[in-house]
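Good day; I would like, with your permission, to put a structural problem before you. I would ask you to consider whether the tokens describe a fold that such a sequence might reasonably adopt. The full record is reproduced below for your convenience:
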Amino acid sequence: MTGTSGPAARMIATLAGLRPDLTPLRGSRDYRRLYASSAISLLGSMVTAVAAPLQLKELTGSTIAVGLVGVAEVVPMIVCSLWGGAIADVHDRRRVLILTEAAALLASLLLAVNALLPSPSVALIYVAAAGASGAAALHRPSAEAMLARLIPREQQAAAAALMGLQTTAGTILGPAIGGVLAATALPAAYLVDVASFVVSLVLLARLAPMRAGGEHDRVSLAGIGWGVRYAFGRRDLLGTYLVDIGAMLLAMPQALYPFLADRLGVPGGVGLLYSAGAIGSAVVTLTGGWMPRVRRPGRAVVLAAASWGLAIAAAGAAPMFWMVVGFLVVAGAFDMVSGVFRGAIWNSTIPNELRGRLAGIELLSYSTGPSLGNARAGLMASVIGVRPAITIGGLACVGVVAATATALPALWRARIDGHALPEKEEAA
């Protein structure tokens, strides 16, 4: 009996250690509200993220037209993310969240109205995509800066894993819902997004105000420049940005999923292609109890980003639908590992007075990469074909990640407990 209970007890203890750490959710009511708001609006946005490309595919039949959604998104993303970061470091972050969430709601409502027209406008889809992208770019720096302030430094890795769990749930359920609704009742897909923003706004309205700057602080180009200089002066931070941009720019294949499903002879499986990466992410986040114990997040970022590229390359070359799905699941798992540890590096080392601006810079790396990557995929697929565009992009990603790690060894050496926060942050 003793011999049996010993291994069993160790197995139970091991499994318990893999469970996500929920401490950040228990410690702050405002954190719970902000987390719930983010989760609900993400779910709706992911419904639209599938519905809009499918609508464009039906209206145009063009890989370039679908890929150009990324171009429509990237310009407002670049312009608004840096200003959004500066705004987050000066103005009441709760108010910023409410205003930008309302703007995103209007963009989704425009898509719903357009879908109800007898002849929906392709141009309006691009306009709505640009508007939603700008709203998100202004929204996210304040949200990330607020989340980071609501929990203590030692819980940042656990909080990053919880945000990953939220992203996973949204990107599994959202595409599944979006795929079904887009095929049966397209306007309803956009209206689900509108409803999600309404619920999110109710939660945001119940948050306490949070102002980072003084009453007389102003948003300025000089303030933005300060944040940019800080980011480029920290070689480990710079490395995380470059790895993320390279991985997404070269190995983001989502714009090609509707066409890939056709090539594989399973057009009805497009929703599963969109959800596959999130399934891999779910495996990581649901067993993420080990993440707060990792002391060298830079190495995890590099290895996971390179593995993401290899898995995407394999997905492009796999001959069968279920093999493609399997490789996309693996890719999603490695993408989540990379994302969690990038977030751990950012949130555990950036001083509070720069959190918004650095979140804006991070948003550039996090969001412009996928937008440009989808445009790259669409254009490349029009020249060499859908599947070669995916495989070649994945292999190029591996090369760029290796080159970045070699050129910026501070990223490889980065340690969560190796940076001392500035005195001002310690005092906060």
Summary: The domain at 26-209+218-427 is CATH 1.20.1250.20 (Growth Hormone; Chain: A;). The chain is about 80% helix and 0% strand.
